[in-house]
Structure formats: C-alpha cells, structure tokens
Amino acid sequence: MSFSSKIFVRGLATSAKQWSPIKTVTIIGSGLMGSGIAQVAASTGHKVTVVDQTQDIVDKASASIKKSLSRVVKKKFPDDPKAQQTYIADTMGHLTLQTDAVSAVKSADLVVEAIVENLDVKRKLFATLDEAAPQHTVFASNTSSIPIKDIAVATKRGDRFGGLHFFNPVPMMKLVEVIRIPETSEETYNALEAFGKAVGKKTVQCKDEKGFIVNRLLVPYMVESIRLAERGDASTRDIDVAMKLGAGYPMGPFELLDYVGLDTIKFILDGWHESDPTNPLFQPCESLNKLVKENKFGMKTGEGFYSYDK
Ligand SMILES: C[C@H](O)CC(=O)SCCNC(=O)CCNC(=O)[C@H](O)C(C)(C)COP(=O)(O)OP(=O)(O)OC[C@H]1O[C@@H](n2cnc3c(N)ncnc32)[C@H](O)[C@@H]1OP(=O)(O)O
Ligand SMILES: NC(=O)c1ccc[n+]([C@@H]2O[C@H](COP(=O)([O-])OP(=O)(O)OC[C@H]3O[C@@H](n4cnc5c(N)ncnc54)[C@H](O)[C@@H]3O)[C@@H](O)[C@H]2O)c1
Questions:
Q1: Is residue 100 domain-resident?
Q2: Among 40, 44, 116, 248, which lies 20 to 30 A Cα-Cα from 166?
Q3: Element spanning 48, H or E
Q4: ipTM of predicted assembly, 2 dp
Q5: Is 34 contained in some domain?
Q6: At residue 1, does pLDDT exceed 90?
Q7: What is the pLDDT of residues 50-79, one digit of tens each?
C-alpha cells in the first residue's frame, strides 16, 4: 500500500473512530448526578464504568442505582415481576463500579465528569485523565455553573471536549444540555448530541455561557423567590403553592432549592456575582448564606428551608 494511501486509511480510521457512536462510557463521580447518568447510560445498553474515591462510596452508589431502578421498573413493567428483574439485572450487568479512574478510561469512548463543583479539582482530574485516555476519547463535564472552557484548558483535547449538563433526578428529567466550546469539533459535538439522545434525553445546544440555558433562568428565579420571602411579601409555603398551582411547576422554588442543594445554589450564585458584581440578579442572598453557614443544605442534610426525615 502506497505511503499516501496509508495516510488516507489511517486518517479515515482515526476520524472514523471519532464518528463512531459512543458505546463505552466512564463516569467519574458516583454521587447524586454521576449515579443517575450511569443508570440511564447502562439501561440503554452502554458499557459503563463508574468511579469514585472509596469503595464505600461506590457501594452506596450501586445501592442507590438499584433503588432508583426498582422505582422505574414498577412503572415500565407494571404487574410483570420477571420483566422488572430482567431489566434491573441487564442494567446492572452493564455497570462496573470502581475507585481507579486511570484504568477506567483506558477503553472509554466518552468520559463524563460529575465530581464536586470545584474548578481546581475538576482540572486536576481531567489533566490526569488526558494522559491516560485514548486519543479518540471525548471528555464532557456535567458542571452546573463552571465555564466548560475553564475546565478544558487542563487538557490537550479542546477539540474533543464539551459539556453534558443533565438534570436532577437524571432518570426522570428528559433534558440534557449539550455545550460546545470554540474548540469543540463537529465530530465531538455530534457524538455528544447522539449520546444524549441514545440515553433517552431531548438535547438542546447552548453556548458556554453562565448557567447555560436552564440554570441561567432557574437559579435567578429561585433566588428571587427567597428575596420575596425575605421582604415578607409571602411565606415560603405560599410561594411554593403559588408556583405549583399558578405556574404548573412540579415543585415550588423552596422545595426545589432544598432538592438541588443550598450549597450548590450558593456556589453558583457566588461564582456569577464574582464575575458580574453589578447584576442585581446575582447579588448575595442573606437567608441562603445563613442556612449554608449553618450547614443546612436542604434534603441532603435533613434541613434547609424545610426539615426532612433523614
Ligand atoms: C442545579 C443543576 O445544575 C440543574 C438541576 O438539576 S435544576 C433541578 C431540575 N429538576 C427539577 O426541577 C425537578 C422538579 N421536580 C420534578 O420534576 C418532580 O417533582 C420529580 C420528578 C422530582 C418527582 O416526581 P413527583 O411526581 O413530583 O413525585 P414522586 O412521587 O417523588 O415521584 C413520582 C414517580 O416518579 C418516579 N421517580 C421519581 N423520582 C425518581 C428517581 N429518582 N428515580 C426513579 N424514579 C423516580 C417514580 O416512579 C415515582 O413513583 P414512586 O414514588 O411510586 O416510586
Ligand atoms: N445536584 C444537582 O442538582 C446537579 C444537577 C446538574 C449538575 N450538577 C453538577 O454535577 C456535579 C456533581 O454534582 P452532585 O450533585 O452529583 O454532587 P455529589 O456531591 O452528590 O457527588 C459528587 C461525587 O464526586 C465524588 N468525587 C469528588 N472528587 C472526586 C475525584 N477527584 N474523583 C472521583 N470522585 C470524586 C464525591 O466523592 C461524590 O461522590 C457538580 O459539578 C454539579 O454542579 C449537579
């Protein structure tokens, strides 16, 4: 085979690899979001490896995925226990949970990061994975608020980097936002969008701007709800009832704040205030700061705007 045709074939092979659908996925972070993303990827036939820091954490993630699956199958296969068990067994059969991130990316087509919302920790992780993952592997972050470009700079694969922003709870929320940075190649964007659809979500595309689409609208709405209560215009309960019955929302803003986590919302708001200090929507919120200072993060700690049985 001539030299030029070898280049041509290799080129096709390389680019063909970038065009082939994503089949093997590694998810780093098995918390609220990582376990949900793993669940929907495994239940749609993808080979999934989930990584977290300790065996105890991944064991807990396995239990939480099984618990969520048991809720899903009751609706998917009503009155058919055999089909329910088969679906759960097949999904769990596609899942490997471990604590070694480097070995977990060795044969990944896609790596989705869903670890703590901390830029330095995300950058450190991606820099390590960039050395370990194959050339064709696409990287994506599930970050709520950090610009994807600020994470991607830690790697040498900006053309194979994007954002996949899923919503909580992942098995129930039908949307995934697909975010591209200027370097994201067409092949990468197409692969990310196809993966979002393959796991059963509706995809939307947005620029790498603050909060992408949903959070840019939802976080200010939730914080404005707190300011409305701070002014004494209405109680948290009445504001929740009003938005559920008056606007058809499944949860009121204070229920949602406690559901997503007050620490997460404060992190997002503080980041946006720092980068745009005069924007009235991003001004610090006293009640939010007080609850977070008291470690009252909402459902995850048993108390936020409301109290929960832990
Ligand atoms: C900040 C981030 O970056 C971005 C975000 O994520 S912002 C947050 C986005 N998410 C939202 O806005 C969530 C809004 N809330 C909702 O959509 C709904 O309240 C909800 C889907 C969470 C719960 O559904 P709802 O009908 O209100 O109540 P619920 O009785 O808990 O669930 C009904 C059924 O849904 C299914 N379900 C709910 N949660 C589930 C889960 N985690 N796993 C599997 N199935 C679930 C179950 O079948 C459940 O029936 P069951 O209780 O008999 O098992
Ligand atoms: N909670 C939400 O509603 C929501 C929705 C969409 C996106 N997000 C984003 O998803 C990401 C994860 O959020 P979450 O709510 O699942 O958090 P979480 O705290 O539930 O889970 C984070 C997990 O990452 C693990 N982790 C941290 N550092 C790690 C490392 N270096 N290597 C491996 N694992 C590590 C932690 O042990 C933990 O299990 C964040 O970037 C967040 O902004 C959150």
A1: yes
A2: 248
A3: strand 47-51
A4: 0.97
A5: yes
A6: no
A7: 999 999 999 999 999 999 999 999 999 999
Phi first, then psi: give them for residue 161, nearest 5 degrees: -130, 140
The whole domain housing 136 covers: 3-207
Q: Is 75 in the pocket of ligand 1 (CB under 6 A)?
A: yes
* Residue in 37, 68, 71, 256 to alter for ligand 1 test, most ligand atoms within 8 A of Cβ: 71
The verdict on the CB of residue 51 being under 6 Å from ligand 2 is: yes
What is the pTM for the complete model shown? 0.93
Task: Tell me if the bond preceding 134 is cis, omega within 30° of 0.
Answer: no
Residues identified as active-site: 144, 165, 177, 215
CA of 198 from ligand 1 middle (Å) equals: 21
Q: Are residues 203 and 129 in the same domain?
A: yes
Does residue 301 sit within a domain?
no
Query: Partners of 94 in the beta sheet?
Result: none
Q: How many domains does the chain have?
A: 2
Tell whether 300 is covered by a domain.
no
Q: Look up residue 195 and give its amino acid.
A: F
* Rounded CA separation 12/5 (Å): 10
